[in-house]
């Protein structure tokens, strides 16, 4: 009896140690590179600033890249991998619209970091820092970026489907998708505010303008003058490269105008407008529309939570030298 008790206690101690070690490895922290690359954030900031000055597309492109990366395999820079066979994560249909300027921003920032701290900082952390920096550089809130991610070893196009929100999703589908990533509906509404600096190709919302339903080709939740504006920008047979701003009023400023637009029926996607049309999410939209500081606080907090999704730490993954290729 005494021997069995000792054996049970020993097993309990071993399990406890394993849990502590695993949870300890999973802890990100802002000062992760304090001794190995103390200037990493300023190095990345300079590279991002240079790129933003070249083209504002850098802002929405980098933000969207971070989101797409984190929702597939976790925040591990798997979306940056380039495959000569065209079967990497970035090659999936849902990722083909990711703008090249986002990739270029991270690649150039990583190169600058490698020049100062070779083999130390992950591409995943460079992307996380760059995502924060583009928000700040376009007028949005600053926040502390937790660091210590490692780069993933899996990047496959076939693993993307079903992991990213679509433009026609309703609130329940959106909420469930975010919940799978330990993010609440409130986080989802706050992170959707990134569309204040976003843009979209016409094909992503053309159905709302021309083929919504048999009784009304135009989605009735659209503000009619806004729908007419979109029709002029996106006629029926428009080319696949034509895009429009998701916030037509202050498209280069990170602000709360996105939510004010929703109050007027000027959400570009169904998944945007549903945030206001659904009574469950409407109070949060109205709050963010009326109080930009409230939106900024919520967005900053939700970005930190997003940055924790599926991270690899400790001895998991690797530190890539080139963000586009496994070591």
Question: How would you sum up this structure, described in words?
Answer:
With 327 residues, the chain is mainly α. Strands 1-2 form a two-stranded antiparallel sheet. α2 runs antiparallel to α4, α4 crosses α5 and α10 packs across α12. The radius of gyration is 22 Å and the shape is globular. The termini are far apart. About 6% of the residues have low confidence.
The percentage of residues in β strands lies in under 5%
- The coarse silhouette is globular
Q: How many H/I helices?
A: 13
Q: What oligomeric state best describes the polypeptide chains here? A: single chain
Helix/strand-derived category reads: mainly alpha
Using DSSP, what is the number of strands?
A: 2
- The unreliable regions are 5-25
Distance between the termini: 53 Å
Q: Please tell me how large the radius of gyration is.
A: 22 Å
Sequence of strands across the biggest β-sheet: 1-2
Largest sheet: 2 strands, antiparallel
Element string (H = helix, E = strand): HHHHHHHEHHEHHHH
Mean residue pLDDT: 93
Share of residues in helices: 40-55%
């Amino acid at each position: 009896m005494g021997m069995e008790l000792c054996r049970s206690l020993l097993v309990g101690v071993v399990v406890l140690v394993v849990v502590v070690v695993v949870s300890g490895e999973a802890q990100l922290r802002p000062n992760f590179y304090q001794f190995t690359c103390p200037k990493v954030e300023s190095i990345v900031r300079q590279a991002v600033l240079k790129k933003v000055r070249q083209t504002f597309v850098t802002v929405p492109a980098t933000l969207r890249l971070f989101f797409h990366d984190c929702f597939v395999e976790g925040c591990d820079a798997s979306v940056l991998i380039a495959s000569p066979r065209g079967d990497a994560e970035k090659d999936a249909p849902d990722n083909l619209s990711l703008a090249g300027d986002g990739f270029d921003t991270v690649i150039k920032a990583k190169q600058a970091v490698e020049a100062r701290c070779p083999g130390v900082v992950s591409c995943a952390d460079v992307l996380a820092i760059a995502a924060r920096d583009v928000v700040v550089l376009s007028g949005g809130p600053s926040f502390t970026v937790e660091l210590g991610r490692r780069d993933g070893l899996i990047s496959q196009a076939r693993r993307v489907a079903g992991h990213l929100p679509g433009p026609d999703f309703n609130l329940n589908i959106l909420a469930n998708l975010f919940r799978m990533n330990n993010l609440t509906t409130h986080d989802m509404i706050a992170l959707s505010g990134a569309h204040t600096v976003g843009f979209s190709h016409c094909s992503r919302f053309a159905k709302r303008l021309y083929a919504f339903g048999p009784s009304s080709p135009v989605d009735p939740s659209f503000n009619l003058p806004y729908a007419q504006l979109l029709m002029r920008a996106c006629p029926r047979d428009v080319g696949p490269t034509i895009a429009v701003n998701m916030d037509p009023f202050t498209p280069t400023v990170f602000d709360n105008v996105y939510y004010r637009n929703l109050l007027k029926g000027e959400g570009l996607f169904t998944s945007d407008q549903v945030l206001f049309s659904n009574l469950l999410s409407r109070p949060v939209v109205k709050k963010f529309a009326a109080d930009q500081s409230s939106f900024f606080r919520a967005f900053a907090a939700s970005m930190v939570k997003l940055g924790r999704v599926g991270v690899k730490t400790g001895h998991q993954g690797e530190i890539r030298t080139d963000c586009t290729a496994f070591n």
